[in-house]
Design brief:
Blueprint (H helix, E strand, L loop, with lengths): L1 E6 L4 H13 L2 E6 L3 H11 L3 E6 L6 H4 L4 E5 L10 H7 L4 E8 L9 E8 L5 H26 L24 H4 L8 H10 L6 E5 L2 E11 L9 E5 L2 E6 L2 E10 L9 E2 H5 L25 E6 L2 E6 L8 H16 L4 E6 L3 E3 L4 H6 L3 H20 L5 E6 L2 E3 L1 H7 L3 E5 L4 E2 L13 H9 L1 H10 L5 H6 L5 E3 L3 H17 L3 H18 L2 H17 L5 H9 L20 H8 L3
Helix pairs in contact: 1-5, 4-7, 9-11, 11-18, 13-14
Bound molecules: coenzyme A.
């Protein structure tokens, strides 16, 4: 079928929808819903059989929905309506929630229902929920809808609040006054829930030392106490504020400003001097998994396998993160274990250097240079490890240097359904992280060039077919973690473990003789130096647009195949393995 996706942004859910439909064999084109005119024009040019809006904040014009079946993905259960569906679901602490595929009509979220998929709620932030359970349910609902539409016999169900399974209702936009924290009475769990319901957008607006900030990245703390509202500790860029029954960590802040743009950054970087007298509160790398506190890098060990977690906000790693992760990896390597699993984070596995911290630096070019070198030091340490077998366990999406970090491992496994973006060019970068060594080694030089040139997302099916990853399994994060543990232990206890380690060592030595890692690094960094320091390069502008979320002025050509001519095949060749 010819399917047109209308979306506000080519975000992770739109990318996953694109990949799943293309893998099914549908021809998919995308138009960003910038205004009514472009959406109407896209429909006229493409003449789709079906239109799907996986994430569209704009209303589909009547001129479209009157003549075409348009499916809107609403992140709510049957009957739920309104623009703050997930915010209310988290704030109201519901036990289960869902995604509903509705037909667009003149009334917002009130069209006939094509499919609805429910899921149990987990304690996490709105955007984390969106990228995990919501995305999985949305893909199920989309695929059901497409099959039902294709059958030509399915009649969608009109919205009828008298039906017992229609449990939702119309809710308003959640304004900041509904979200406000009362530090004199709100418990830790209430505060965590309020912040999570607004994370990552718009953030929860609050006061700190007489100024207004949006709060993000909330984690409960089970040991520290103090006067409610006061900042009582700081750790690795996060601040800890006392509550009436304990304390809460807040990892990121964004100042509320009137006439200028502001950036979301680690809290301690935003408050800087104001934290001079606030004590540092350390936490060991091997902190117990049962402790409630803030930790971004931690280590666990079981049955001769070490698990290194790096669950950093938005998967972005600053220079400091890279240095701390390298130290943690060196610690893991010093243990008498056989296998190290790089677990990354559950939301994002890893998205490369920290573009917001770089943007906020006095000299962004210098900070980019420090960040990429710290990242390369980390990856070099992984690549040259001969004491352990290293596994990358990709629980969540990964992009740019995040994918290349995974490729430094000996084995790469991914949770089925995550989205990988193994390229840098759209950020105006050549890329480093030894990708010129690791990527061709896995997929061959021709494919490596295509992947980094055409810059399309990739699903786990294709990633496995082309050898970018070894295998994808388990859709749910919990079962993925159980299976990765099983796989890692099998390697550790396999009779051929010693032989495998020896082979790895020999291979690395052979590769080193053929071309030293230092040569790859120097060549990549020579290009990156140009990207960072030469005036005609687009990186600084691209980064600015990215961190300040400057809306695209048009749909990129490689996505809108209805606007493409000769090179449309290029796009498809990457989505399929060929
Ligand atoms: N540095 C800082 N922030 C980053 C980041 C990075 N490298 N990668 C992602 N983020 C942030 C986004 O700004 C966004 O912030 P928010 O909390 O204000 O919403 C959040 O992570 C989620 O990203 P978003 O783009 O909304 O999610 P997505 O799932 O639709 O897309 C990516 C994910 C990874 C494809 C996209 O974020 C991206 O291209 N990131 C940049 C990757 C990169 O070029 N890294 C540097 C080179 S190594």
């Amino acid at each position: 079928m010819k399917i047109l996706l209308l979306a506000t942004a080519y975000n992770s859910l739109t990318q996953r929808t694109h990949l799943e439909l293309a893998y099914r064999g549908d021809q998919v084109s995308i138009e960003l819903g910038l205004n009514d005119q472009v959406m109407i024009e896209a429909v006229e040019l493409y003449q789709p059989d079906l239109i799907i809006a996986p994430m569209l904040k704009q209303v589909i014009p009547e001129a479209i929905w009157r003549h075409h079946v348009c499916i809107i993905l609403h992140p709510g259960i049957k009957g739920d309506r309104g623009p703050s569906a997930l915010d209310w679901a988290i704030a109201n602490n519901v036990e289960s929630w869902g995604v509903t595929a509705l037909q667009a009509t003149g009334e917002m979220d009130a069209g006939d229902i094509w499919a609805s998929v429910n899921f149990p709620m987990q304690p996490m932030s709105k955007s984390c929920l969106y990228r995990s359970q919501v995305t999985q349910a949305a893909i199920q609902a989309i695929l059901q809808t497409v099959e039902r539409f294709e059958s030509g016999t399915f009649t969608p169900e009109p919205l009828d609040y008298t039906k017992p399974d229609v449990q939702g209702c119309l809710r308003p936009y959640m304004k900041q006054r509904f979200r406000a924290i009362d530090w004199r009475s709100d418990s830790t769990s209430t505060i965590v829930q309020k912040i999570r319901s607004a994370d990552s957008q718009p953030g929860l607006l609050d006061w700190i030392h007489g100024k207004r900030y949006y709060l993000y990245g909330a984690h409960p703390e089970d040991t520290l106490t103090g006067t409610p509202g006061d900042i009582i500790a700081q750790r690795q860029g996060a601040i800890c504020r006392a509550t009436v029954d304990g304390a809460v960590w807040i990892s990121h802040l964004k100042p509320k400003t009137r006439n200028r743009l502001s950036l979301k950054l680690p809290a301690a970087l935003v408050l800087a001097d104001e934290l001079a007298t606030v004590p540092e509160s350390d936490v060991p790398l091997t902190v117990s998994p049962n402790r409630q506190t803030y930790k971004d890098i931690w280590y666990e060990e079981k049955n001769q396998v070490g698990y290194l977690h790096f669950d950093v906000y938005n998967g972005a790693m600053s220079t400091d993160h890279c240095q701390r992760l390298r130290d943690a990896f060196i610690y893991a390597r010093s243990r008498k274990t056989k296998v190290i699993v790089l677990m990354g984070g559950q939301d994002f596995w890893f998205n490369g250097i920290h573009l917001n911290v770089i943007e906020a630096a006095d000299n962004p070019a210098d900070e980019s240079w420090r960040n990429i070198n710290a990242m390369n030091d980390l990856i070099h340490t992984i690549l040259t490890t001969d004491s352990h077998l290293v596994i990358a366990g990709l629980q969540g999406n990964a992009a740019a240097g995040g994918v290349m970090l995974a490729l430094a491992a000996d084995k790469v496994y991914a949770r089925r359904g995550i989205v990988l973006n193994p390229h840098y060019k759209r950020m105006g970068l050549y890329g480093s992280e030894y990708w010129t060594y690791s990527l061709p080694k896995r997929v061959g030089s021709q494919k490596a060039r295509e992947l980094t040139d055409i810059c399309m997302p990739m699903g786990t099916q294709v990633a496995q077919e082309i050898g970018l990853i070894d295998q994808a399994f388990a859709e749910q994060p919990d079962s993925f973690c159980q299976q990765i543990q099983f796989v890692a232990e099998e390697f550790a206890h396999h009779p051929a473990y010693g032989q495998q380690l020896a082979l790895k060592h020999e291979q690395r030595q052979r590769d080193e003789r053929f071309k030293p890692l230092e040569a790859y690094r120097n060549e990549e960094l020579a290009q990156m130096r140009r990207n960072f320091y030469e005036p005609d390069q687009s990186y600084h502008q691209q980064r600015y647009n990215f961190v300040y979320k400057v809306t695209a002025s048009q749909t990129p050509d490689h996505l809108a195949i209805h606007r493409q001519r000769a090179d449309s095949e290029k796009t498809c060749s990457l989505i399929f393995a060929e």
